Amino acid sequence: MKYVALLRGINVGGNKKVEMKRLKTFFEALGCTNVSTYINSGNVIIEFEGSKEELIDKVKTNLKNEFGFEIPVLIKTQQELKRIAEVIPKEWQNNTEQKTDVAYLFAEIDSEEIADMLPIKKELVNILYVKGAVIWNVKREDVIKSQLAKIIGHKIYASMTVRNVNTARFLGNLE
Questions:
Q1: pTM
Q2: What is the rounded CA–CA span in Å between residue 4 and residue 81?
Q3: Which residues lie closer than 8 Å to 86 by C-beta, 6 or more apart?
Q4: DSSP 3-state assignment of 39?
Q5: Is 109 helix (H, G, I), strand (E, B) or coil?
Q6: Closest residue by Cα to residue 85 from 174, 10, 3, 157
Q7: Predicted confidence (pLDDT) per residue in 52-78, tens digit
Q8: Superfamily for 2-71?
Q9: CA 102 – CA 123 distance, rounded (Å)
């Protein structure tokens, strides 16, 4: 089965540096096949013959030993990512006029109420919830006024990993 491992918080601002080549080798050593990475932000595309739970257990058990620090990781099936990508309105883009991100949610915060918990000015942000993710879109001119940056300091931020809409669409359209 095809999976994508979404590693949270690596290679951001020079912290928690992880080479993609080393990450690829790590997943191969766990028994994954057809391993590839997508951009430098911790997206690992893999195939694994065991169950999702078995894969999660192997990754979580060995990740800190390999890299020397905690790395929260979400593992989604390709079908889960496809379902999330399919609900993103086509007109929501990442360009000079608008910013669109997908926050993939860890189980402890995965609920429809998550949108209400975000510390943002909701009148300036379009928000969608789909099982496994919350998606937001804002006009570039309103990014600062929307207070999206406040999410980083909020308690729920540690239980999500954010990708821009282009990455989310790419990962959702793997075949």
A1: 0.93
A2: 8
A3: 172
A4: coil
A5: helix
A6: 174
A7: 999 999 998 999 899 888 888 999 999
A8: SP0830-like domains (3.30.70.1280)
A9: 18
Q: Under DSSP, is residue 70 helix (H, G, I), strand (E, B) or coil?
A: coil
* Runs of H (alpha helix) within the chain: 20-29, 52-67, 78-87, 114-117, 143-146, 165-172
**92-106 exposure pattern, b = at least 16 Cβ within 10 A, e = fewer:** bbbeeebbbbbbbbb
The C-alpha R_g of the chain, in whole angstroms, comes to 16
Tokens 């999660």 belong to residue:
56
Q: Is the pLDDT assigned to residue 20 strictly greater than 90?
A: no
Superfamily of chain region 80-172: bacterial protein sp0830 like (3.30.70.1260)
Overall residue count recorded for the chain in this entry: 175
